[in-house]
Design brief:
4 helices, single chain, two-stranded antiparallel sheet, 3-stranded antiparallel β-sheet, alpha+beta, Double Stranded RNA Binding Domain
Length: 141
């Protein structure tokens, strides 16, 4: 396969780095499921890819269960009846996973609660405490 899988405007993965194998799909499907290899296994070696080191590192630490200990991403697509549609879906899933680790999250700045919110919280706790005190057994009448 020649060409590039465009992940974003700046990032692409050459199809030569992606290994795809047709396999038989699981589940119901009649005679067709037993004789046609319509499901697709996609294997992508993250360490040996041409992606930037930052993206590789983020992919390897993202904790996705589809990434093996060797750093190989394994995707299986078997939703559709045709191999071409399953292949397109597997490529899209790979691209969306890479896109998801490309997003740089803004670090959270620690903030303090406002005085009003602290006072409202404490007032609510006082009221709740009074309600619970009122539930106790009454003393000698």
């Amino acid at each position: 396969m020649a060409g590039v899988l465009q992940v974003s405007a700046a990032v692409g993965i050459p199809f030569a780095e992606i290994e795809t194998v047709g396999v038989r799909a699981q589940g119901a499907g009649g005679q067709n499921v037993n004789k046609v290899s319509s499901a697709v296994h996609l294997r992508f070696d993250i360490g040996a890819s041409s992606l930037s080191d930052t993206i590789k590192r983020r992919l390897l630490v993202c904790g996705d269960g589809r990434i093996t200990a060797d750093g190989v991403l394994v995707l299986k697509s078997q939703e559709h009846r045709s191999r071409e549609r399953n292949l397109a879906e597997a490529f899209e899933r790979l691209a969306s996973l890479v896109r998801s680790v490309m997003i740089v999250r803004r670090p959270r700045r620690a903030t303090r609660p406002t005085r009003g919110s602290v006072e409202r919280r404490l007032e609510g706790k006082r009221q709740r405490s009074e309600v619970k005190k009122g539930r106790g057994r009454r003393g000698g009448d």
